[in-house]
Write a structure and sequence with these properties.
Helix content is 54%, strand content 10%. It is mostly helical. The strands form 3 sheets. It has a two-stranded antiparallel ribbon. The N and C termini lie far apart (47 Å). It binds heme C. The site of heme C (HEC) has 20 residues, from α7. Heme C (HEC) binds next to α7.
Length: 248
Amino acid sequence: MKKLILAFMMLALPGLAAAAGAGPHLDQANIDLTDKASLQRGARLFVNYCLNCHSASFMRYKRMGDDLGIPDKLVEENLLFTTDKVREPMKVAMSVKDAGNWFGTAPPDLSVMARAKGSGNEGANWLYTYFRSFYVDESRPFGVNNTVFKDVGMPHVLWELQGMQTLVNAEELAKHASAKPEFALNQPGSMSAGEYDQAARDLTNFMVYMGEPAQLERKSLGIWVALFLIFFFFIAYALKKEYWKDIH
Ligand code: HEC
C-alpha cells in the first residue's frame, strides 16, 4: 500500500508542478479586507460597471451596506438600480437568455468568483491581473483579448478608466505562457496607471469580501436542506413500518 501511494505521488507531483508553472503570470493584488474605504470604492465600481451583465445573487445590498458601513439611505441613493430594493439580492439587469445571445456565453454569477479562481491569495491575484490585462486584439468580437483569459468573451468594461493598451511581447508569450506580459498604453484613460491599479485592487478587494458572506449564506441554506432530508428520512421510515406491519 505504501509503495502504491509513493508511486502515485511520484507520478502526480511533477504533473501538478508542471500545471502550476504553465499558468499565466499573475501580479500580487495585495488587498486589505480591513480597509473599508477601499471596499466601498470597490462596491461602487462593481455596481456601476459589472451588474449590467453579471449578477451576484448570493449578495444582498443591505448586507453589503451593513458590512461596509454604508447607511441604507446612501445605498439606496447611490448604489441601487431604481427598480431594486435594499433588501434584495444583486440581480442582473438582463436575462440570461439575452446575455447568451449577445455574448455567446452568459456572464457568470460573481458572488463567489474570487474563490472560484483559486484558494488563498491566488483568486485575488487572478482577478487583479485580469482587470489590468485587457489589450487590443482586432480579431476578437469586442476588439480586445486578455492575457489571463485567452479569447475572453467580455468587453473591456473599464477602458474609459484605464485607457486601451497593446501587448508588446506577444511572441515571447506565445513561446513561454508564464512570461510576464508587457503592455504599452496607446490611448490613455481618465485615470493614471497608479490610480487604475488602485481601482483594480479595490474591485478585487470587494469581490473577495463578497465571496465570504455569500458562501456563508449558501452554506446555511445547505444545512437546512440537509436537515430536511434527515427529517424526511425518519418520516419515510415510519411510514414504511406502518405499511408493512400487518404483512409480516
Ligand atoms: C457587457 C457585459 C459585461 C460586463 C459589463 C461585465 N462583464 Fe464580466 N463577463 C461577461 C461575459 C459575457 C463573460 C464570459 C466570458 C467568457 O466566458 O468568455 C464575463 C466573464 C467574467 C469573468 C470571468 C469568469 C470566468 O468564468 O472565468 C470575470 C471575473 C468577470 N467577468 C468580472 C467582471 C467584473 C468585475 C465586471 C465589472 C467591472 C464585469 N465582469 C463586467 C460580460 C460582462
